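call fold(seq) -> tokens
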Amino acid sequence: MRILFIGTFNTRSDNIAQARAFVKLGHEVVEFDHARIGFDLKSYSARDQKIIQLLNESPFDLAIIDRGTTIAKEVIESAKAFVKVVVIYTGSGDAEFDDELISRLNMADIGVLSQPGPYELLADSNDNIHYIIEGYDPELDHAMKINRTRDTLFIGTLKTQERIAFTRHLSIETIGNAKPHEHAKLISSARININFSEGQLSNRVYKILATEGFLLTQRWSGMELTFEPGKDFVVFDDLTDLTQKIDYYLINRKEREKIAKSGHIKVTNYTRSAWAQEIIDLAKL
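ret:
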């Protein structure tokens, strides 16, 4: 297939690895950076017209749009005249899952969600909405043989007061600006990798487990659909619980490594290539 992938392709964007997953499967991918092109043209309207022009003038089989909330709804409707349109959402923020995003998922020929919670909200009213686990990129997310010099590590942004309070109280090292290719080395350097979820699945989970990191995480909606808490990772409920479990697992290396190994085995099949293949299979129906 020839695919137009409309997303953001900067050094911190997962769209780069997602596009690469389709290329690995033998498909041709043309990247359209809607944020950069909109900035360069100084007009979202001009950018949207460029999308339609591109689809009109070039033979594509599929258009994949990541969220697309800055792209006019009329563009998505027009694009459907030329190709099958897939709108994807692999984020984990409730604030992002708003009416604008929902309308675009419902408009698409295929809507793909990587969160069980949002999927359940839409699936009953739209048969074209699908839940596909995004997973990890084996090229980037793999174990590295380096010393685990960090006790605790959180890779992500301190976007809530709870995250700030927990990391400060427990002196959890936080790295908020890591690039995708840096994650594996960081995860491999930590004895305990922390995940804050606010009830939603983060792709951070797959990155940590794929890298054979020990994961200590908050709960998220639909967690038991894929994993076995206590076997694949350990869950904490509050600050006291997190404190006690950090203290316990820091001194119980063998138990920590056994859990990390189980989690790694569990995610083996959840790669971005598998995610991409499921989208291709849907598009062929």
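The two ends are 14 Å apart (CA to CA).
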